[in-house]
Amino acid sequence: MLLSPTWTAILYLAAAVCFILALKGLSSPKTARRGNLIGAAGALVAVITVFLSVRLENIPWIIAAIAVGSAIAAPVARRVQMTQMPQLVALFNGVGGGAAALVALLELGHATPDAGDTTGLYDLTSVLNPWVGLAIAFTLLVGAVSFAGSMVTFAKLQELMTTRPVVFPGLPVIMAAVLVAAIAASVVVIFTGAIWIAVVLIVLGVATGVLLVLPVGGADVPIVISLLNAFTGLAVAASGLVLGNVLLVVAGTLVGASGTILTRAMASAMGRSVAGILFGAFRGGSTAGSTVASDRPVRSSSAEDVAVLLGYAQRVIIVPGYGLAVAQGQHTIAELQAALEARGIEVIFAIHPVAGRMPGHMNVLLAEANIPYEALKEMSEVNREFKTADVALVVGANDVVNPAAKTTPGSPIYGMPILEVDAARQVVFLKRSMRPGFAGIENELLFEPQTTLLFGDAKDSLGKVLSAVKAL
Amino acid sequence: MDDGIALLTITVLAVFVGFEVVSKVSSTLHTPLMSGANAIHGIILVGAIIVAGQAGDGWTLALALLAVVLATANLVGGFVVTDRMLEMFRGRRSKPTEPAASAASAASPAPAATDTDAKEAGR
C-alpha cells in the first residue's frame, strides 16, 4: 500500500517549507536553533515519505546503510572542536557531492536500458531526452568536482598537506585539457547515455576538483568551501530534475543560492574577485606575498603596561583575528572581557567578515567561549565606534586593520573594507612577530605613535595581560 | 512536456526564495548558515534511497548503498553540528552559567524587577 502521488507531493512540499524556515530562522540568533530543528524535522518527513511512496527493494540494506551513515557522522559532529568546524563542513559537503554524483550515475544506468517506469512524481526518465541527459551530465561533473575539491580542502585545513598554494608548470594547460575533455564527455553522455563515458566524466570531475583547489592558498580556503557548498547544492538540484523529485530541486536550489551569496560576500570582504582567488595563483603567485620581517623601530611593551592601558580605559574594542583562532585563545579573551567588565569598562568585539577560517567563524569561536552575541559587532556598525574607544586591542589580526586599504591606492589590499582601528585613541597589537600578514604588506599603523605592541603567542599574551589586569 | 515546465517553474521560483531568505541572514551566523545549508543538501539521501530501492544487481546495490551512507552522513552530521553551534549563541549572560539555572533566571526577570521597584518606592 503506497501513498498516493497527491499525498507524496504534499509531504514533500511540507519538507521544502521546513527547509526554507530553517534558513529563515538564521536571520537572528534567537530563532536560529529552532529553525535548524524544523529543518531536521523536514528531512525526517522527507525520508519517511520516500519509504512510503516508492516501491522499494532491498529495504533492510537501505536501513542498515542509513544506520551506518548516522553512526559515523553523529559522534564526529558531536565531538568536533569549534576551531575544526571548517574541515568538518568541507568533509560533509564533499560526501554530499559524491552521493549526488553516484545517484546520477545509477539513475543513468537505470534509465537507459528499460524505459517506461516511474521513479518519482514527474515521469521524465521514461525516455532519456537530451534535457534529462544534460541534468545527469551536470550532476556527474559538478558532484565529482565538489567531492574532490572538498577532500583537498579538508586535507589542507587538517594540515594533511601543505596549506600554501600548490602550483606547477603546465597547470593551466592541464586544467584546460581536462575541462575540454569533460565537456566532450558530457556531450557524449547527453546524447548516448553511455555508462562508461559517464564514469570517465566522474573521473574528469575529480581531476577538475583537485586542480581547482590545489593552487588556492590557506587564507582563501573559506571562499572555496563556500563555493563548493554552492556546487553541491546545484548538483543536488540537478539530480532532482533527473529523478523528477521536487524536494531535491527546491533544497538543492536553496543551498546553491546561499552558497553563491556567501561566496560573493566573502570575496568582497577581502576586496577580491572569486575568479581572482581561484585563478590568481595561475597568473604568478599573487597570493604569495612577502614574509620578510621589517626592522623599523616600533614601540613594544610589557603585558603589565598593556594591562594598565586596558584597566584604566572606559571603552575597549577588541579585534580578534585568525591568530586568535590558531592559538585557541578564545576562552582567555572571554575571561579578559569579564575581568574588564568587572572594572566597569565597556568591552565590545569588532568582527571582520573574514576573521577566522570560514565565513562567520570568529562568531562561533567567541560564542563557544560564552561571549553573548550582543557584544559581537559587525564591521558596518562598529566602525563609527572606534572614534570613541580609548583602546583598540587587536589580537592576531593584521591586514583587516591596515589603513593602507583606504589610503594607498597602489596597495594590493586597496579597496578592501577594513576595521578602522586607527581612529581609536590607543591601539594595542598582540602579535607573534613583525612578519607582515597574509597579503604580505607592511602595516603603517604598527609604527604610529599611538600604537603599542606586545609580542608572543596570542593565548600566552592574553593570559599574561589577564593576570596583570586582575592584579591592578 | 508540462511536467518539465512545472519543474522549471519551481526551480526558478526556488532561486528567488533562496536569494531572498539567505540575504537576510545576519553575518554573525554565516558559519551556521553554511553548515545548515550543507545539511539541507544531504537530502540527496532521498535520491540515494530511490536508486538503492531499484537496484537489480550486486554492483548497483553496492554503489547505491555507498551513496546512502554518504548522504546520511551529510544529512545527520550537518544538522547535529549546526545544532551544537547554535546552542552556543546565547544572549546576555545571566550570572550562573548552567543552562538550567539560566533558563530559570530568564523566566524570572519580571518579578525581580518589580521587587526592586517596590523597594525603591518604599524608600
UniProtKB/TrEMBL annotation, chain B:
One of its GO terms (cellular component) is plasma membrane. It is found in: Cell inner membrane. It is an enzyme of class 7 (translocase). Keywords: Cell inner membrane, Cell membrane, Membrane, NAD, NADP, Translocase, Transmembrane, Transmembrane helix. Its EC number is 7.1.1.1. Residues 8-90 form the NAD(P) transhydrogenase alpha subunit C-terminal domain. GO terms for biological process: NADPH regeneration. It catalyses: NAD(+) + NADPH + H(+)(in) = NADH + NADP(+) + H(+)(out). Residues 92-123 are annotated as: Disordered. Pfam families: PNTB_4TM. Signal peptide: none annotated. InterPro entries: NADP_transhyd_a_C. Its main location: membrane. It is a multi-pass membrane protein. GO terms for molecular function: NADP binding; proton-translocating NAD(P)+ transhydrogenase activity. Residues 97-115 have a biased composition (Low complexity). The chain crosses the membrane at residues 6-23, 35-55, 61-82. It comes from the Bacteria. The transhydrogenation between NADH and NADP is coupled to respiration and ATP hydrolysis and functions as a proton pump across the membrane. This is proton-translocating NAD(P)(+) transhydrogenase. It comes from Agromyces albus.
